[in-house]
Amino acid sequence: MTDKTQPVHVVLVTGPSGAGRTTAINALEDAGFESIDNMPLSLAPRLFEQPGLSRPMALGLDTRNRDFSTAQMMDTIATLSANPSLTLEVLYLDCSEDVLIRRFSETRRRHHLSPDGAALAGIQLDLDLMQPARVRANVLIDTTQLSPHDLRAEVTRYFAPDKGNPMAISVQSFSYKRGTPRGIDMMFDCRFLRNPYWDETLRAEDGRNPKVQAYMAEDSNFPAFKQKVLDLIDLVIPA
Fold it and tell me: Is 232 part of a structural domain of the chain?
């Protein structure tokens, strides 16, 4: 938990619609931030009127906020910046017009600032309204050439380099006659290896038992198979 005597770290995530705000907020949430998206701007300062916040916070602000105006947004930023109990950073996600148009086209969504017209008109108005926040930003990330994976990595690098939750890896064993597990990324058929089930002294044990491990290691195919699996994992996981 955050020391209550220390200022609360607050990141305002903003930028034009389609630039990756949801991805950035999710990355911050995974890094331990409490996130609130698209709340009315007038309510943002009230979140911090009561003491006792124990987690850093990520607030999503853009032209989709219910009471949005450029002046209101900048007033909100100024009010939070002046609060001595907070350490405020503004993260602005930028993106080129061409890529924003392509992203809206791919998702087949109408732009909220141009619901009855071409997306370009809404995108241009969005960029214009957000320009003061862009100038005010502590951190500016151009997402034009970034994949969602790349953006997550950039956000984590800036705001939680030592606090990101490590990747969770689940290893399961299963029986083909009962069907394969759901939601798996890699599956290896190990039926060519020695099966400890046929050793009555090991039948009730599992792979955590050193005797089972020794039994499997005696299979001449095991060392090569293990190494190839590890080599594949070493290649895939960092990517």
Answer: yes
Residues 183 and 148 in one domain: no
Q: What is the dihedral of CA 95, 14, 163, 36, to 10 degrees?
A: -140
Residue 122: closest CA among 130, 134, 113: 113
pLDDT tens sequence across 192-204: 999 999 999 999 9
Residue 68 lies in a domain: yes
Contact between 121 and 114 under an 8 Å Cβ cutoff? The reply is: yes
Q: Residue 59's beta-bridge partner residues?
A: 12, 36
In a domain, 30, yes or no: yes
* SS3 category, 213: helix
**Is there a single domain that holds both residue 20 and residue 87?**
yes
Cα within 13 Å of Cα(166), Cβ side: 3
pLDDT digits (tens, 9 = 90+) for 48-102: 877 767 789 999 988 988 788 999 999 999 999 999 889 999 999 999 999 999 8
Provide the domain limits for residue 82: 8-159
